[in-house]
Amino acid sequence: MFKDLVALTKPRIIRLNLIAAFGGFWVASKWSIDIPLLIWMLLGSALTMASSCVFNNYLDRDFDIKMSRTRERALPQGRLSPSFVLGYGIILGIAGLAVLFLLVNPLTGWLGVLGMFVYVVIYTMWLKRNSTWSTSIGGVSGAMPPVIGYCAVNPTLDAGAWLLFALLFLWQPAHFWSLAIRRREEYREAGFPLLPVVKGVTRTKWQMLPYIALLIPASILMYQYGYAGVYFLVLSLAASAVWLLHALSGLRSSDDEKWAKTDFFLSINYLMIMFLVMILDTNGV
């Protein structure tokens, strides 16, 4: 049962987003770290994200049983009851938001509420079932972690908060669509109208390009506004260029599965490199 409870929170997603939240906190702190505040921010963010993922599992349980990737989850297999999972998600959400509102600051709490609302209501309950725009608009929730981290230290939505939001918001669609291309038949059978299912693989590859390309000016602005140093600028531009060139190569690739697998790998490593270098090369050292 414990393993199922952990799996419901999607720990891989939480881990990746906590790296982004930590990066946002570090950018705002400029190496002057308030350790207790950092811990509370990470805990509140983790619990809030875990709650959202549990709600996602609860709401998608009827669709999950149709997909080979998800049909072994606890809810489709009946190992946990829907009412228990719903209660579990509510408890995690209350705990996470309480930590953010009371032990970090109210702005981070409201950002947590916004992230949960977009992910659970706008994305999971509405767009994911009805529109190809689900991935793009759902990216608002995925872009909250670095903003929460930043605003934990600097409780205002200034240029730094918006640039961190932009980096995650732009990264997500291309990252997810590379996975969706590989799993498109499963999503088709489950009834999810994702872009590769409705518009096809070629259209999806074209639509990935502007998101990846816009990461370049976003990185330049991080440097220009003094939130990161020259090493970040150089490495982020190089990483963006590599990812963009690979995305362009997909337009003439004959093996969509192989290309999408590599692109997904590049997207994960791009994010890890970006935030690691951002932390190490934050101005103010």
Provide a descriptive summary of the structure in words:
The protein has 285 residues and is an all-alpha fold. The chain has one domain (2-280): Farnesyl Diphosphate Synthase, CATH 1.10.600. It is built from 15 helices and no strands. The protein has helices at 2-8, 11-29, 35-59, 61-64, 74-77, 82-104, 106-130, 134-142, 144-153, 159-182, 184-190, 195-198, 201-224, 230-249, 256-280. Helix 3 packs parallel to helix 7 (106-130), helix 6 runs antiparallel to helix 7 (106-130) and helix 10 runs antiparallel to helix 13. The longest helix has 25 residues, at 35-59. The protein starts with a helix and ends in a 5-residue tail after the last helix. The mean pLDDT is 93.
What structural keywords apply?
single chain; 285 residues; mainly alpha; Farnesyl Diphosphate Synthase; 15 helices; 81% helix; flat
Mean pLDDT: 93
CATH architectural arrangement: Orthogonal Bundle
**CATH level 1 name:** Mainly Alpha
Integer-rounded radius of gyration: 19 Å
Low-confidence blocks of residues = none
Distance between the termini: 46 Å
Order of helices and strands: HHHHHHHHHHHHHHH
The largest sheet, given as strand count, sense and whether it forms a barrel, is: none
CATH topology, by name, is: Farnesyl Diphosphate Synthase
- Number of helical elements: 15
Oligomeric grouping of the chains: single chain
The helix fraction, in percent, is over 70%
Strand content: under 5%
